[in-house]
Amino acid sequence: QLQLVESGGGLVQPGGSLRLSCSASGFRLDYYAIGWFRQAPGKEREGVSCISSRDGSSYYADSVKGRFTISRDNAKNTVYLQMNSLRPEDTAVYYCAGDYGVVFGCRVGEAAYDYWGRGTQVTVSS
């Protein structure tokens, strides 16, 4: 069974950092663009960042640009989201998702993504 698993969430003070991981069970991530999405209470899920499968290109939402960094280690079958300078408004459940077959670039819309993890909670609060 193909499965994505997020980890690394938790409670952090404003200005702090967390690194989220997205790992795959049952398949290789090499051929998947990976996206990170988040959903805050009472809000719709939104795209945060994505990274291509092959050419290393990435995308960031304006709200996280300059603070978050997405990266991948195909040897470890894992994609990371380094989150720095966290703000209370970053509080949400964070999901990773896989988009198969996109070689260059990555797509922003969640409808493009085939496989989803169950999410990890990130809470930014003093």
How are the secondary structure elements laid out?
Elements: E1 3-7, E2 10-12, E3 18-25, E4 32-39, E5 46-51, E6 58-60, E7 68-73, E8 78-83, E9 92-100, E10 115-116, E11 120-124
Question: What would you say this structure looks like, in words?
Answer:
It contains no helices and eleven strands. The chain is globular, with a radius of gyration of 13 Å. Strands 2, 4, 5, 6, 9, 10 and 11 form a seven-stranded mixed sheet that branches. Strands 1-3-8-7 form a four-stranded antiparallel sheet, with no helix packed on it. Helix content is 0%, strand content 48%. The mean pLDDT is 94. The protein is an all-beta fold and 126 residues long.
Task: Provide tags for this entry.
single chain, 126 residues, mainly beta, seven-stranded mixed sheet
Mean pLDDT figure: 94
What does the overall shape look like?
globular
Helix content: under 10%
N- to C-terminal separation? 39 Å
Largest sheet: 7 strands, mixed
Number of helices: 0
Number of DSSP strand runs: 11
Indicate the radius of gyration in whole angstroms: 13 Å
Taking pLDDT < 50 over at least 5 consecutive residues as the criterion, the unreliable ranges are none
Give the topology string: H per helix, E per strand. Answer: EEEEEEEEEEE
